[in-house]
Structures are given as C-alpha cells and as structure tokens.
Amino acid sequence: MSGSTLAIGSSLLDTNIVIALFAHDTAVAQRLEQAASVFVPGTVIGELYFGAYNSARVEQNVARVTEFAASSAVLWIDATTAQYYGQLKAELRTLGHPLPENDVWIAALARQFSLTLVSRDAHFKAVPDLAVEAW
After folding, report:
1. The pTM is what?
2. Rounded mean pLDDT of 74-101?
3. At what angle do helices 42-53 and 101-112 cross, to 10 degrees?
4. CATH number, domain at 99?
C-alpha cells in the first residue's frame, strides 16, 4: 500500500495534544502556528466528546469540542483506512507491540496519508513506518 500525501510537513494530532491545546499549553500553540497543515482524526473527536460527556462541566466542554471539530480539518475513516488498520494491527501483533484500539486507527490514518503523528504517547514509537513527534 502506498500512502496519499495531503501536504508536506503535515501533522495529525492525537487526543493528548488537543487536550494540551485546550489547557492553553503554549508549546503546543506555538508549534501549531509553525505547522504547514494540521489534521485531526475523527477518532480523536470521539475521544474528546467522551471526555466532555464524562466531565463536571458537560455543556461547556461539549460546546468546546463541537467548536474545535467545526474549525478543524477532520480526517474520517474510510475503506482504505480500514485496510491500513488491518495491516498495521497484524504487524503490531507480530512484533508483540499491541496498542489501544483507537490508537491503531489513529496510526493507520497517519500512515495512510503520510502524516507526522503528534502525540505524547510513547507507545506510538513502536509503530513501524510512522513519523512521530512529541510537542
């Protein structure tokens, strides 16, 4: 499988990076300003909604996620992503490096579109052929 490239220098944000942005992490905000283009997996939007619905301020946090999703370039899973997912999950199983299910989908999107995954989760470094940065 060969990936589709959206833009050279493009980044795909993991949930923990968006949460850092919501928390006004200046390092993340500065890196976002410098990024060529930024995408967010639909899976991350789902994780953010989950967190919002399980928070003490549901209404405020759901509104924040809704606004963020509307203003972001969201990449959704399609049949091609599913193929990348299946291949990646098999690779990780062979290597003995399982990932949380949602993270396999996120990594599959990053590989599909040749994006750099931005995450603070160290376990992504075990994914073959995945560019990862920690902001």
Report:
1. 0.91
2. 96
3. 150
4. 3.40.50.1010
